[in-house]
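Annotated sample (chain length 225).
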Amino acid sequence: MVVQHCRAISSLQDYTAELYNRKQLHYTEGIIFPALRFEDFNADLFPRIRNLIRSNNTRHPWLELDDRQILVKAGLFRRDLRTGKEGYVLAAALLLGTDEAIQQVVPHYKIDALVRKIHMDRYDDREYTNALPATFCIYRDRVEVENANNPHGEGQLSLDDFTPYPKNPLISKFFMQLGRVEELGSGFLNVHKYLGYYSPKKKPQFIEGVRFRTIIPLDETLMAE
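Output written by the structure step:
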């Protein structure tokens, strides 16, 4: 009886630790890489960033900052007040890193862009492969996108009870400064709003899970060879 009780406590402790770790690592984009240096960023991107910002807002405060200050202001360099560790974060590498730097921080990353309109048991075309199992598949009647996800719930999202939840807030905020994204959740709403113009009477599906799935139905007459 004592042994069973101890095992139950141990199991509960393991479960609690797992929940804590998931919370701690939820925003994986914020993981600090102390060895990531400013020299690991693509210098050619900074003038482009300023041009994009200027085209969107000529009085944007970032236009007065140097390259390193922009990274700090964007939250891409930080110090962990709990551990004292400081440095550039994963989001900085993904947004601005050289190809070599990105490959080192996420060597598992992979995107497959696949076309499966005719021969369903093989790829009609393989356009891009670069290392995590995220897939973009084009079928005759739909487009399906899948990517790894840290879910906040399970099952299909509905317009009736949809609540947007940020998965990559640092990256999202960075693109907002560039004028390249809208408010959180707008993509979900816009797909529902405009899909009817392209695929009448059809509804998209957004399915939350360990892998997030997006299914966009197509008008097959538009996909005919």
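Annotation: Residues 2-24 form the longest helix (23 residues).
Annotation: Residues 28-106 form one domain.
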